[in-house]
Records
---
Amino acid sequence: MLCIQCHLEVNEGKRFCAECGAAQFLHCPKCNAASPIGKSFCADCGTSIGGTPSTSHQTASVVVDRTPSTANEAKDVMSGERKVITVLFADIKGSMELIEKLDPEDARAIVEPALQLMIDAVLHFGGYVVQTTGDGIFAMFGAPVVHEDHSHRALYAALRMQAELKEYSARISADGHQPVQGRVGVHTGEAVVRPLKLGNGQIEYTPIGHSTSLGARLQTLAPVGSIAASEAIRQLCEGSCEFNDLGLAKVKGVSDLVKVYEVTGLGKQRTRMQRSAGQGFSKFVGRARELDSLRYAAQQAQAGSGQVVAIVAEAGTGKSRLILELMNDIRSTTKVLETSSVSHGKTSYCLPLIELLQSYFGIEAQDNELKRRGKVIGKIENLDPQLKDIQPYLLDLLNLNNEDEPLLQMDERTLQLQTWESLKRLLVRESVNQALTLIFEDLHWIDDQTQEFLNLLAESIGTAKILLIVNYRPEYVHRWNSKSYFTQIRLDPLGDATAKEMLASMLGDNEQLSDLKRLIFEKSSGTPFFMEEMVKALFDDGTLARDGNVVLTKKLDELDIPSSVQAILAARIDRLPAHAKEILQTLSVIGKEFSISLISSVTASSPEKLDKQLKELQLGEFIYEKLISGEKGYIFKSALTQDVAYNTLLIERRKILHEKIGLSIEAVYPISIDDHIAALAYHFGRSNNIDAGMQYLTHSGRQKLMEARKKNELVSHNSLTKSESPEVASVADDQVATLDVLDSIWRYPVKSMAGEKLASVFVSDKGIVGDRVYAFVN
């Protein structure tokens, strides 16, 4: 099973997670007995527990029973974080009228199962039930554990909820009761998620923010029996779900009109690559060598030497796109079967295998059970009558066996092994007729059963005309490396030249956009998906527009992180152990790069402990080692990772860390303090230490002004002497930039670092004059 805190595997029967220490049980509110998560009633006394709607708010949520081990950890646990989450509100429409004339126990017998269906739908997709009311629930996705697809999970839960409520309503209507109809509202946005410690020692998580309130309002706007979603949800989930535009609505507490959509069902695009295909692909660049490796493996497989090719890379680097480009080349010469794991699929039995078989047998969503059985049996008989013995096993995997099937009497493990063998025989036999290419994507989310089948298949294809292509992120491990027919392809982010080529294909060659392109590349570190999402976000918010060419319509101070990118990076950060995540957040406040002496001073950790923590971050490729002014130091692999880690911290926590870092810089670099004035101004300027911040801002401003003055004097000298030296020419080119710096000077009366009042300074033709200090503000 999966841990409720970190969602990593927990061995069956274990009461605590070996990774994060979270308890995998709830305490009964009556007898205090421990019961496993997921159980609705206490096995000792029968009291309702763990998400049952008839209980109090305290037991209606899946709570994380994690007691901090130290005082410092307790402080951090209780401080909360800023997170982008998706909230879901659901209720039973007209519940008062439904139970008006019923005895309370009869009313409970009708309402409680409906609420349990809502809760089960949330838990199935990894959501967290924050609160239950008499006739509804409040849930969130993306916290306390971050999922990169939290908005999708919320919609899947809402759709499942409505489908099961309709089935339940039909059953009770047949017994003479009034029908039960639900309304659901879903919204995604930023919130502060704070853990609240209850009296019994358990910790409960509650989101606070405007996003939460808007989600609650959307529920009231939802058509009866349907789901209302915001524009933010539509942007993230369009393609994977179908939306019906309900127009603009006035929402209490929101000054502007709110765009509302009805979610009508699942869409046809399940993967990110399918959604990208619907929007149009960017130019494929920088992967010629890797594509050649795939083509060679395909040639080997088609000649009868089976191959296993693994593409490993971080999210957004282009694993799926590389496979797509190969398929464009070889689809006419091979039969292709594709499937993928999903982040919430570990709890779904053999989901990738079921989808693979449905594709192979041509099973459509609208097919009834009889038609599905006919397709399976007919396909196998046409392929090879001698494979008749595998039919019942594959029918069972597809849940199409008759109730009197003898296989149902077989023990579960034997049935499972026979099913894997049957599926392997089917695929190997198919490859005799034509070369077969099998694609399994996102193995980092694979369920145990599908993994077991892949292990069997990888052992069996060395002499078959089968090309097995898998892709996964670096944290996934397998046991195929020793095979002579195994090839691993690692994808790194794009380099400077190829990233420029890709951005030019999206934005054109307008020189006015060169700074923007550079900023996008630096922020994304060359990750193709991140670059695409940034460009898309700039078009969506109107910063970029097409007028024959792409043009910048307004000044751009900084790049916002698109929600889709933030979710991926936040989920990766959240999978870190608590101590590693804490130091990563601290490093994000220090800056893009940092020396080991400064880190040591800020964290006050022992050298051994600090070295271990930094190595963890290195192994995860969050940071790289780098020499900084001749001293060992580190640099963030990605500026976006730094930004996302920084943004998770509450503002007050940031201020404390900024001041702590400023004090550490003073302590570590007392002799060369002038070299760190800008950093001191930056950190103290963002802390609660206003006096120090103002002093260093002033000093930094004076440094900037003197630099600007020297440049202007050099330019003036050049105009008199007509010098053509490269140095002077370079400064002349920077004259406009220098004047922009002067225009950015901020006027404010302050004291010097020593405490005395200073005369004002600014650069003019007559030198330093005036009665106010001018400080430079970044």
Note: The first helix runs from residue 71 to 79.
---
Amino acid sequence: MLKHTLKSILRQLKRQSLFTGIHLVGLSVGLCCAMLLFLYIRHEINYDAHHAGADRIYRVTQIATSQGEVDYSGGTPYPLVDALRSEVPALELVSGIHGSGRGIVRVPGKDHYRLDEVYFADGSFLEIFDFGLAEGVDPAIMAAPGKAMLSEKTANTIFGTENPVGKTIKLDEKLDLTVVGTYRGEKQSHLAADMLVSLASLNEDYLGFPTDQWGNSIGGVAYVRLPEGGVPEQFSADLAALVDKYMNGEEEGVMNELWLQPLSGIHFDPRVDQVASVEAIRPVYLWIAGATGLLILLMACFNFVNLSLAQNLSKQQEVGMRKVLGASRIQLWTQYWGEALVLALSAGVFSVLLLQLGLPYLQEKLQQQISYQGLQDYSLIGFVFLITLIISVIAGGYPAWVIARKKANEVLKGSKVVSDKSQVSLRKGLILAQFVITLVMICSAITVSRQLDFIQNKDLGFRQEAILQVSRNETGRNPQLKEEWEREAGVSSVTFSLGAPTSRNNIGSDYYPKGRSPQEHRNNIELKAADESYLENYALELLAGRFVSVEETARIGDRFPTEGEEWPIVVNEALVKEMGCRNYEEVLDKRIIIGFNNAEGYIVGVTKDFNTSSLHDEVAATAILPLSMLYYQIGVKMDPAQIATTLPRLEASWQEFYPDQMFNYSFLEEDVLEQYLAEARTNTLLQGFAGLAIFIACLGLFGLMAIMVRQRRKEIGLRKVLGASVTSLWALLSSDMIRLILISLLIAGPVAWWLMSNWLNNFAYRISMNVWTIVIGGVALLFIALLTVSGQALRAALTNPVEALRNE
């Protein structure tokens, strides 16, 4: 019986090869899209999930409140780690790290190697976090100075097949280190380190500043592991006591607080200034990806169900004959449900095959390595099987039940099964839902693309084009190097600084106007260390006064300001507004007390606002000051037409000055774009999957129009005999689709507007939503849909009526 039913099902599917193909392609593409986005979301939410006891690991985050402004920072004072160990003994483990970012490693007799992520960590760090230490490696060895551990990837890059343990390496030409072990390090973590260096190796000579002061938190991070059954709330009083004892007296007018941030939330909290190897993402982007996958899957399911309804409910003559020949209701139900099940399972198999092709492409576009275990990925395969089973029951079981319950004489006499209003309404509702989903996705893709284009083309207040950023292992100025590079024909200017106008290399501090109460007038400020060429190099616009001079830079030399010492600074418009000055000239020569060593800054100039961070944030109050102790970067303004010829010459002269250092560079334009990777990924996802949504919708439209033409073949023939024109017949067959698209425009327009307005609120600088986005999306969908249905409609309208009526 089963064999006969299966053969009958396969014959039926072969006889309707066009619709079988539409079913398979539509559902397999929809399932593949859903699986791709499922893998991407799983990849993101699995960050730091592999650590043992991850639910008990927390990062100590500092919250500073001043004048109503709240600032979150993952960096905490370096002495906090020892204070937590000694004064909060109930904590199971406490660890401190310093995130130094990129580092240059040199091995005697070998080349230089650039590492993207270098962390200084103590012995407790490897007890809290699972980095997959090689067998026999004792984490406690990292308590001693001069020790380093390499990731297996880094070890293979530097030493190849040699055993790296016991080898000597030099970090940034400052620290001599001995390799004491390796670790796997391939898991997803916000601390994806290429090399771990013992925290005891960190010193003032390497950093350029002391690590024993409570007011200093540049790069320092503290992690804790709570005891079994412990909750963050039970440590609130202890943390508050530490703050009152050591931190709240450091800066008058600033209230500090320590908060235990769960490890699982670090990757999803971009408001916290991160010391991490991976940028935190906004959860809204995962919601967008999840909603996109779900909506495409729903569209594919709607298509499958709709076509199955239209096909099965038109088989009334066949059902009547089967009933007359003795077929039972359960046999009929099994036949039509079986057809849907075979189609759905086949689509599931094809979707897994498509996944093998689509995943590498998605990884390339998103620039991420997304894990997939093939057929051993049981959760994913189970999800596909469950979806196909549900679809087959709805698409095959429901119409089969509707037909099977009719009596044979009713069916053979032509009872209006197909024209049942409830069935027609259901099919139209499913088509309408498809149009709404497609239109929302089109409008969302247009909006995200417009915002990304706005980001990439907005004037940030400084020059980005052809600016070479060269990182150094030492601070201070090198006048001879500057002079030699500026003699190059392709170089306009050279500046030494802590970093470009938009970079992470800022010093977060606070200030208040001299003579005013710090409790009432203290505000946050970002400090940028730069020499006298910074203004010209980055084409900042000077609105009043002057920039810092060569003489001032030389006078200050290589040192930090002392308390009460006057220091020349150039401020931006945002700071002038915060001080309440009526014009830019009024602020010149005014003094402000800066939290950085309580130095007294006197304002010598005002620049136009420039974006110091991404466009998610408003321009912050900023001061530029000569501080050569922090000049870790060289900015070179180049002629775009001569980059290819000038760059090798710059590298050659660099090697003359620094034979033991790697020429480590990047271009500013690329660094700025890295700030918007999440938006670029969302744009890629929406554009690609919106195109697939259109494809699925058009595939369904094509199939439905083919079925409708077959069902109305006699009507079309009669109308042609009675003189109907081709245009009128085309309008007759297409009118329903046009009407549904117009209705979907009315529904999808407000939905897309609301969704995208909320998304745009994540940006301080953004485009404005306008009705043309909705109109363009609606017109595009209407045009594509009409192209899809017009072929079938015109072919039916041009068919000789004799062909349709000769058997009547």
Note: Residues 415-419 have pLDDT under 50 and may be disordered.
---
Amino acid sequence: MTLDRELANDYLYFLAEELAAEAYKSDSIIPLEKKLIIREQHNFILSGSDRILDAVPEKEDLDLAFFATPDILETVLKPGTPSGAIILHTLFSQIGNSRLLEEVSSDQFEIIGTPESLGRGGSLVVHKQYDSQQQTFFIQWQVKGIHYDQAASTTTADIFIDIAEDQQSVHKQVKYLISSINMPIQQHIYTNLPEKSSLHQQNPYHLLVLHHRTHEVVMTLQTLEALGFTIDAFIGIPYGESNWPTMRMLDYVSSQSYRCLRMIQHPIEPTQYRFDFKQSSFLLSADEALFTDLYNDSNVNRDYMSAMTTLVETELVRSVQRCLQEKTKFLIYEDGGYAIPLIYQIYNDSSHPWHSLFKQAVDERIIVGAVEVTGAGERRDLAAIESNQGKALLPVLSTARDDIKTIFEAKGVSQAIIDSTSTALGRLGLPTFETRKVAVIGGNGAIGTRLVEELTEMQNSTSNVFAIDIVDHAFYREIDSERFPYAAIKVDYLNLGRYVVEDNCLPVIIDLSFGNRSLHLYNQTLEKSVREFFSPSSPYASFTELVFTNSFPHPDISLEMLWQELDRLNQLWDSIRQESGYVAEKMEFLPNGQGMIQFFSNGNLSKKVTLLVSEQVLSFKKVTRLIQNHVDTIIGMTGLPVFDEYDINAFLTRNNNENPVDELVLVSGSSKDYEFKKAIAFLDELLAVLSEKTIDIQQQLTGYTRCYEQQMCFIADDDMDMIRQVLASGKTPDALVAQLKQYPELLKISGLKDAQPDTWASGFAAWIRGKIKSSLSIRKSIHQDIGTIYHIQFNGQSKRLVLLADGFVINFFAKHEKGVKTEYIDPIVTMQLLGLVKLATTETAIEPGVYRMAQQIKTEDINLFWQALDDKSRPIQF
């Protein structure tokens, strides 16, 4: 019986037929994916005594990804000798096989593989005979992420299969995709780089690159390789998932050294972070085992920074060991301050297993320095120096505070945040920014200022856009408008003013279209609000300032008109004096033409009314008050954990304003998961309490103590003060029992009066848990490429907390998002590249410390960035 006939009823025959029928869907970049589940042991591909996984499961659950152009896949599977089924049979017989097949026909097949990768990776050359001609095909396979789940008795893995005409053609489309990336500034810098020839002749530098998974980073990796740098590893920042084209390009340009993590979300459990074998470049069995073991540790996988730090440490150690062995040098190219603080930590920790290695590498200048791009990363690097008694170990060149980033890239980042957020909200069926009330935390920073401007233009008003910041003015920086007139226009600011609203200030928003300056001081809203503010029975008695937006003419109004307007106000002030006893005293104009303040007194009491010109943004020190007043969207831009459980409490306790569901959307535009980290941890703790999950008594008591100390709304009742006193002194089970003995009334209320004391701690914790569950319920839903929604019921009110991108920066999260657009990123990553060249070629070593990049590279190179933007911004001439 021929093999074709034996395979006639085999799963591989049907797989070949299915692939042939769907060949038109295939692509060499985005694969044709198939799920293959095998239950018969004799058909197992990866599992068994003679296979690469020495285990016998009940089934294999394999994800196949076929990379091939439609014509190639169709041709390799169409009738001929060998048949498509035999080709797949031969291929899968070798995949997972720990030895080379000996029984294959040498005139039809050639198997190529190395002993260390055999079974996991290799190539199959197929010589296929058609009626009158022979055609050769090259098939390359990689087995990734082999895992045997003993509990489920299942082997899982991803198998990548590339099919092309020859070995060179496997990456043909990937190379074409890379060549289409348009980064004119980087191309110009590379072409004209004076140090290029010397780096080509001798470049002893190895690189660890930690950056976003974008087209611009792909091109930069290729440029670095062209300059002779050796890329030991590229670690992709895992905000969400990356798409197939990006994955394929990064794998290629990093010389198969791409490493990445993935998020694993659960409706109750906190998010976990695991090594992403599918996304990462192919690994040999020892490395797969290493990363599997590392990320099985809950101390590593339960926190984003611990998971990333573990990966960075692993690759740092390998690179440093390699450089010491080869007597070469090492540089770090990063985004976010992952590696440098870790080097300081290990350098100063004599008990760390890699302390001696890192100390030698730093002291002997094997590690030469690093380049950084973010403000958050720069802060982390500076904090590392501070923790080392102010002594820097390495030079770090940072673009975080350079003009090209703070002035120009900030526009691109703000646009990307708006675009990505609008897409995510649209996919949820929710309104986008035109009708939202938005608070920007960090709204007076470099990016926050641009974001406030973009939102104002979208809404055609400042009325529903608010800044949250400890700084009282918007960011502003100029470029040379004489040298770069068109670029200066392109990056000019709207110059929206800021007015800081203190806790004792009551703001009244008078809406006005953006750019409208034809204001009148007196109107009915103003009169009504002023009378309520000064009324003896006013609900606003605790406030000492009343501020009106869009209520004062701009300085360009004529004095005659201004006095006419003020005369009408004086009549109102006189009426207030008669009604409330408050006398209008001095009037002051605000600086920079922002408006005026009218002061009032009544004996020892004083109040003031402030009138602002148009185009002023109200600025607050904390976001909590805005939440209480029904802001529905918060964008965090600080890179710091500024949103916490108090803000969640404010959301829960505000009324629904007659809406069936009260909604708050949280968006991060800053580095890592810092912005909403405290709130996420708090919600995870509540989810555990509200579920039937068993929680350690000590852990429960710690959490409940914090809730009662903070007087959270869901434990607020007549017993709250008494319970808070007990928990404050009874922070362990034994201490709690001792404390409860002094509160017989509480024992009675909690139903523990007749219970044995050794059950009091668990019974008391269960009683509090029941209290929380009686007023609060939370359900967490996970939305692919969008984020997480917390569906909350509190005291009969329905609420929805929408956490876009799961708290990570929104513009890199979804597979279809690429982050900030290329024209904004090209100069930034190129400036980092120039920083690496500076560190690698400088004759005089740069002293350890953190430096602005612009202070270390040539002025003409900085000007080149602005000149390129100026040229692109020049108007067309008719």
Note: The longest strand covers residues 134-149.
---
Amino acid sequence: MSALLRDLRFALRTLGKSRTYACVAIITLAVAIGANTAIFSAVNRVLLKPLPFADPERLLYIYESRPELGMVTPSYPNYIDYRDGNASFDDVGAVTLSNMTATGRGEPERLNVEWYSQNLLPMLGVAPALGRNFLPEEDVPNGKKAVLLSHGFWTRRFAADPEVIGSPITLDGRDWTIVGVMPPDFQFAFHVDKHIIAPLGTRAEEEGFRHRAAVLALFTVARLKDGVTLAQATEDMNALGDGLARSFPAEYGQARPVLADLHAEVTQEHRGWLMMMMCAVVFVLLIAIANVANLMLERAMRRQKEMSVRAALGAGRWRLIRQLLVESSLVALLSGGLGLLLALWGVDLLTAALPQRLGLAIFGPITIDRTVLIFTLLVASGTGLLFGLVPAVYASRQDLAQAMKEGDQRATSGSRHLRARSLLVVGEVALALMLLVAAGLTMRGLARLQAVDLGFDSTHVLTAAVPVKPERNATAAQLRMFVSELQRSVAALPGVTAVSVQMGAPFIGAHHDNFLPLDDPRPIVSGPVSVVYFVDLGGIEMLRNRLLAGRTFGAEDTPEAPPKVIIDKVLADKFFPGQDPVGQRLRDRLSEQPSVEIIGVVDHVKHYSLDDWEVAPYQMYYLHSQVPDKLRQGISGLTLLVRTQGEPGELAPQVRSAVAELDPKLAVHSIDTYEKIIGTTLESPRFVLRLLTIFAGLALLLAAVGLYAVMSNAVAQRTHELGLRLALGAQPQAVVALVVRQGARLIAIGLVVGIAGALALTRVLASMLPDLGDPDPLTFIAVTLILVVVGLTATYVPARRATRIDPMVVLRHE
């Protein structure tokens, strides 16, 4: 121990005399270690730690597999049967989402309402921070209207007043009682802000909740009984599904329950980008280690005579290696401490920059806990060993007789050190290329999404959500009058070229329902599901959706006329191949007729996102003035679309005022440009790209610095040779070319290794990130050119310095 303390004191004195080296090494490693710690904090919170619920390993999602839809969430009747008929779960709960308008205290405000079954919060092991959970008698149709407030909404709208418990809040014109406030960090199934929680059972008698074949976003969660395995629960639920199929052959049909581990489901969408980020920061760390190892090798070469003298005085090889490893470990630990401070700042920045749509709130706050501290300590210790071992081994190889003959820094070991440093630079270039290729492919994937054909024109369009009060929807005539007044009021604004009032729109949300071809004898509830848009006259033209056949809705489609339907190209190609679908008929549930006539075909539009993922691949359009009373009575809001001559966002205040003139209590919400709404679907890939670009840029900078350092040292070692060349008449350009060729060889080798590694890396990443796409030759060429330019620039600077060598000085020294 005393020898180790002596080595530590000697290392401190040595580093104190080489402050520039110590500062450069510590800062370089600290940035890389800080980045690794910050990203690992997210990986640890999301992928490694359990969910912040009670016994999370026993929590499961219950989905349904339906032949016509694939994997969907259960309908409400099926959820009730799964809850009451199983023998494998302690409990089964459910949650869905809708919107309501809060009035009374403050301005009218549209809120996201999460509807929880009464047993869900106890099942998750979560209690309100203030007040209580719902009572069983509140979670039933026509039960007492109780709500829980999210902590953020309570703080913002009620100024965190604890006396709010027991007071009323008006939602959609009806009074509800506030019974509790949720904890600050709680979030479960939906990534939404401005939300409250209401009892799910109060909606059990609504139209959409009564149908067994209905498609709802009803996320159903179950807790396994102690000792019951997933396989046993699956067998139990399959038997339950078989029983429901026998009891309800038309409505349940071939649907079957499917169980999935809750943690695996919620982490699935995050695993790919987190692993990519972790690879990126590890590459940055390896490049930083190579840079510091280069510094250590240069420093070891300068201390060659010192090592020789110590060896001559009796120091063994292990003694010399230990001394140098203590120095490198000290640098690494200091870097780790500084890196940890940078990581604390980095975690705050990461948390602030995370898009809400990314959905990390369910995992709880990202923090630096004991696991992360141990990770940082291990990284720092391993870093010290990695960048210190090679220089230590090289410096400890002493030929005493040869070393005593040399007497200066031009020892024969210089070339050996240079070879080692060159190998490190090759590795840096290869790693930088791999990281840049990953960033380039991510950028290309994002560009492909941005260039996708939407099927409609979203430019110069403002959108707004307008709630419909019950008194304005008592009859179909009242609803039509309200829509007509709304259109006239907004259309009169300066700069407005077209106005459409719809129920549902692409990227905003829409109704889903079943349909069947006329000759299909199955019950309609067993048919495929389509997105359903309820539009007004001119609505399709307003969004400039391309008409491919037939006509759109016109003056002949009056409220009294039989309803008609317009279908999209995907539906037409699937069910009417080689035929003219115009004039054909479909069986549906919405028209309340035996069948509905197809009057037109329009192009398919992107509805859910810019990629190819779709819950329902078909689309149908109805005229909302022809909506049957049963469906109309469930309408609680409309989508207002306004096409403008100029910037649509500038009209938002006027649109809000125009609606307020109709009814000051209407809480118009979600006013935004259509392009911005579509752009929010790209928040997550943009965030990943920003992070990846930062790390790739850092890797490129470190690689360029490493190449510059190696070439500068090579020029310094060859000062005598280059001076003699110049003295014998060599042109400066020839000397520059000589040095640049040496650097170019290192760059070329690094590029070859990097391209091979990038090809392998992209295959792995593509399996986790489908949007990444296949390896793109253009990306590889662009990245290679960037590295060549940066690398040759880093080589050219020391090469130019070589031409300033004074031959006379070299000859006098000789």
Note: The CA atoms of residues 587 and 595 lie 4 Å apart.
